[in-house]
Amino acid sequence: MIYALTQIQEFAYQVDEGRSSKSILRFNLTTAIFVVRYTEVFRPDTLKATSTRAMYGAPYHSVVAHMAQMYRYISLRSVVAEACERMFGTLR
Predict the structure, then answer these.
(1) 10 Å Cβ neighbour count for 63?
(2) Which of 23, 27, 67, 90 sits a CA distance of 20 to 30 A from 15?
(3) What is the DSSP letter of 11?
């Protein structure tokens, strides 16, 4: 699971020149591997300390459902940076 997550992070911060049809396919497959491993480790029926929504909420959904499709069209470096900047804006 951690290895798949690090690969997803590599894709998220990859430069535009590195994006190809092969990397798009690898991103989709890596996301699928991450989903399988994540659900094996954090099974929804065994979560007691945290809610299912906390473990399978918006951040999980964004990575699993939308990130690979967005990677196909735009550079994720700018999207990830803007999301982090938005978080720091609320902390002020």
Answers:
(1) 18
(2) 90
(3) H
Quote the pTM value.
Answer: 0.70
Spacing of C-alpha 57 from chain mean position = 12
Please give the structure tokens belonging to residue 20.
Answer: 């190809």
CB 77 within 8 A of CB 15: yes
Please write down the HEC assignment for all residues of 31-57: HHHHHHHHHHHCCHHHCCCCCHHHHCC
Question: One digit per residue, pLDDT tens: the chain, 92 residues?
Answer: 889 989 988 888 888 888 888 988 999 999 999 999 988 888 777 767 667 677 777 778 888 888 888 888 877 776 665 555 555 555 55
Cα separations (Å) of 22 from 25, 26, 52, 76? 5, 6, 34, 17
All residues at 6 or more sequence positions from 23 whose CB lies less than 8 Å from its CB, including other chains: 11, 14
**With contact defined as beta carbons under 8 Å apart, do 16 and 75 qualify?**
yes
